[in-house]
Amino acid sequence: MRVQLSTRDVEGLSRRIANEKKSQDYYISHAWLTDAEKGAFTPSIYKLYSLSVIYKRRYDEILGFFGINLDDIRREQMWLTLPRTYLIGIQPEIPIPPVLIPPDIREKIDLGKTNLVSRMFSQWGGVPVSLFGARDSGKSVYGYVGTEDFTLFPLIRPGSFVQIDANQTKVDRGGWNNEIDRPIYFVELRDSYACSWCESGEGRLLLIPYPQSRYQVREVRFPGDAGIVGRVTAVSMRIAESGTGFP
């Protein structure tokens, strides 16, 4: 932290904070800080507050020096399962900034077609991770289901984002108990993408739509005219629009 403060300076400044807060929990002694820098102590939330104020750094930045990343909270809330239904709260202290797509790029994105997110935003220099609300580990691929793609409607609605496990490219031949458990695949075709159930065999791939979608089964040569990008493992989608319903 390049503010050119000695441990004695920090001690004096923290004393002022402790006096203002009327609590010695905020006080950082010269000896304590010296030992903490050597890894002997882990600061309390109060001492971290004082360090944040003294060093003019955000509180989450100070936490980062001790291996705590607040961006992980939302992601870990998702995978940490609990037996009862519950609400995952937002984090107003660390708001996710809106995704501001440059106008010239926005005009070139066809939201009607299903596509890989990385290709949709390739001219923008990468994938806008804030679309997904969490930091990605780099092991997943993300896809977008076009607003004109009703293949798996209403199971997966048009305009949804999907997370894809690119390691799962073999089409399962059965073993699921219901339509919710049935594997969904993201498929690359010659001139487009598809997100659907699949069946393969004898050099062909069947793209199976949801029965209520009224779409027809599509048959393509496999692997000649199609490739499995991966299995869909998560979906982010709206289930209602404000004041209107889905088509």
Q: What name is given to the CATH topology of the largest domain?
A: Umud Fragment, subunit A
* Share of residues in strands: 15-25%
User: Structurally, how many domains make up the residues?
Assistant: 2
Largest sheet: 8 strands, antiparallel
Q: Helix fraction?
A: 10-25%
CATH class of the largest domain, please?
Answer: Mainly Beta
What is the H-and-E element order?
HHHHHHEHEEEEEEE
The beta-strand count equals 8
Strand order of the largest sheet: 1-2-3-8-4-5-6-7
Radius of gyration equals 25 Å
Global geometry: elongated
Give the N-to-C terminal Cα separation: 55 Å
SS content category? alpha+beta
**In the CATH classification, which architecture of the largest domain applies?**
Ribbon
Number of helical stretches of at least 4 residues: 7
CATH superfamily of the largest domain: Umud Fragment, subunit A
Mean pLDDT: 81
Low-confidence stretches: 90-97, 243-247
Describe this structure in words.
An 8-stranded antiparallel β-sheet has the order 1-2-3-8-4-5-6-7. The protein folds into 2 domains: 7-64, 434 Repressor (Amino-terminal Domain), CATH 1.10.260; 103-236, Umud Fragment, subunit A (Ribbon). It has helices at 7-21, 30-37, 45-54, 59-64, 72-79, 103-106, 117-120; strands at residues 115-116, 141-144, 161-165, 185-189, 193-201, 204-208, 218-221, 226-236. The model is unreliable at 90-97 and 243-247 (pLDDT under 50). With 247 residues, the chain is of the alpha+beta class. It contains 7 helices and 8 strands. It starts with 6 loop residues before the first helix and ends in an 11-residue tail after the last strand. Helix 1 (7-21) packs across helix 2 (30-37) and helix 1 packs across helix 3.
